[in-house]
Design brief:
Elements (H helix, E strand, L loop, with lengths): L2 E8 L8 E8 L2 E6 L7 E4 L4 E2 L3 E3 L15 H4 L3 E6 L12 E3 L5 H7 L10 E3 H12 L8 H11 L4 E4 L1 E2 H9 L9 H16 L4 E5 L10 H10 L6 E5 L16 H15 L3 E3 L23 H11 L1 H9 L3 E6 L6 E6 L5 H7 L2 H7 L3 H10 L16 H4 E5 L10 H8 L3 H11 L4 E5 L5 H8 L4 E4 L29 H5 L1
Parallel strand pairs: 1-4, 1-5, 6-7, 7-10, 11-12, 12-13, 14-15, 15-19
Antiparallel strand pairs: 1-2, 2-3, 8-9, 16-18, 17-18
The chain binds zinc ion.
Zinc ion (ZN) binds next to loops.
Length: about 500
Amino acid sequence: MDIKIQNATIVDGTGAKKYLGSIGVTDQRISDIGNVKGEANIELDASGLIAIPGCIDAHSHADQTLLWFPEAQNFIMQGVTTVIAGQCGSTPAPIDNAMPLPSMLRDYLFEISPHKYSPENRLFSRDVVNEWMERVYGWTITYETMSQWYKEVETRGTSINIATNIGHGTCRYQVLGEDYDRAATKKEVEEIKEHVIKGMQDGCIGVSVGLDYDPGYFADEKELLSIIECVKEYDGIYNPHFRKNIRAKGVQGKYFNRYFGYIEVLDHARKTGTPLHISHLCPTYGPNKEFTEAWDVNETPEILFEAAGKASMVPLVDALEEGMDLSFDTIMWPWPRKRVMPYLCSLFTPLLKELGSRERFGEWLKIPDFRKEITRSMWEPTGSNPPIFKSPRFPDIIYVTVCKNKEFEGKTIRELSLMLEKDPFETYLDLIADDPDIMGAVEFIFSAEREIREYFKHPLCSVSLDSSTFNKDYQLKNPPYSLAGQDMRSTFSGFPAFF
Ligand SMILES: [Zn+2]
C-alpha cells in the first residue's frame, strides 16, 4: 500500500451515511476502504476532515479557458475532478477562419480595440486572433474541430476529466457569420446540423443551446428542433440554457418570462424525444425576485420560499410523470453570499474604460460637474449605471474590505456615511476619490438561495459552478479588474461551501 488515510469521515457518494474509517491507495488507485489493515509508505491523519470521491460539476465553462489554465486550479482545489462543459451554446470548435474571440483575449481586445460597452464585432479572423495570441500568450489556435481540440487538451495534459456538448451557437456562427440576428434558411439549418453531427461524431455528449445569447437567441423553433433531434442518433442529450434573462421578453411574441422559457425547452424535448438536461435551473417564482431587493428578505416567511421553489418545479414534475427522460442542474451561487467587486470603482466599468485607470477615475470624481453627471445618470436607464445603486439597501450591502484608511475596513457604506455625515452615494464616490484602489464586497442580493433548496432535494438534481478554469493569481488588467473567482458563482469555493 502506498498511502493510508486514517480517521477520515468518509462520504462515499452512494448516498450511504458518512462513517469514520480509513482509505488505502495502491498504484494511484483506492485499493481498500473502510477499516484498512496493514502499513503504508505514507500515512496521513485525516481527523476532523471529510474524504469524498471527486465531485462532478454538471454545468461548466471549463472549455473556454482550459488551454490557458490546464491545471484547472479552481476546480481541483475544491475537489471537482470531472466537468460537463461546452454549455450555453458555446464550444471551442467548430471554427474555421472566423471565430468568436477566445474569452482569454477579451481583456486584451480592449487595449487594441477600445469599447465602452461591448466590442464592435462578434467574430474575428483567425489571423488576427493568432497575432494577439502570439503576442500575449506565445502560442496560437490551430484546432478547427472538436476532435482536434480534444487532442490539444490531451497533448497539454489537464488535471480534470472533461466531457463537452457541441455548442449550437458556435455552429451557428460558422454558418451565418456576423449576419446571425435572424432566422436561418432551410439550407443554413442543414449546414448548422452538419456541424452539430460532426461534433457528436467527434465525441461530444449532446448539444447545448444558449437561448438568451447571441446567436442562439435568434434561432426559430424549426432550427432548434432540427438540431435537437439530430443528436438522438448519437445517444446525445439536449442541454439548454433556457430563456431566463432580460432577453426572454417578447421572443417570438410568446415567451415573455422565465416560466415560458422553461416550458419552451420541455416542449422541445417532448417534440423531439431527445433526453433533456436543463442547465442551471432557477426558480420561476419567488418572493425574492431579482431587482425587488428593496425590502429585507430576512423578514420573508420561510414558507413562501419553499412554496416558490415547489411551484417552480411543477412543470418538471409533470414532465417526469409523462415519462420524459429528464434531469437538471442548479448553480449553487448563493454561497458564499459575497461578491468581491474587487474595487469600489469596478461598479463603474464603462466609465473606467473611458478614463483608462482607477487613478484617473478618482481624479475626475473631484471635478464637480463630472460628479454631478454620474449622480444624475445613476437614475437613467443607460448601460453605465449599475442597478445596485437603485436599491435603497445598497449602503447596507456594500462594505469596504481594503482601504488606505484602515479605520474604514469592514464598515458598510451606511456606517461610513453616518460617520462622515454625508449622503451614502456621495460617500461612495468620496471614498474612491480619496483612494481609487479601495476594495470592497457586496453581500449577495439577488439570491434565490431558499427557493433552490427545494431543487437540491430532488433525486435528478445535480449541482454546478458555471465557471471556467482559472489559477488563483489571475486578475484582469483592464476594467473591471476582476480577480479569478470574483463572481458570485463560487469559482473557488462553491462545492465546499455547498457541503
Ligand atoms: Zn448559461
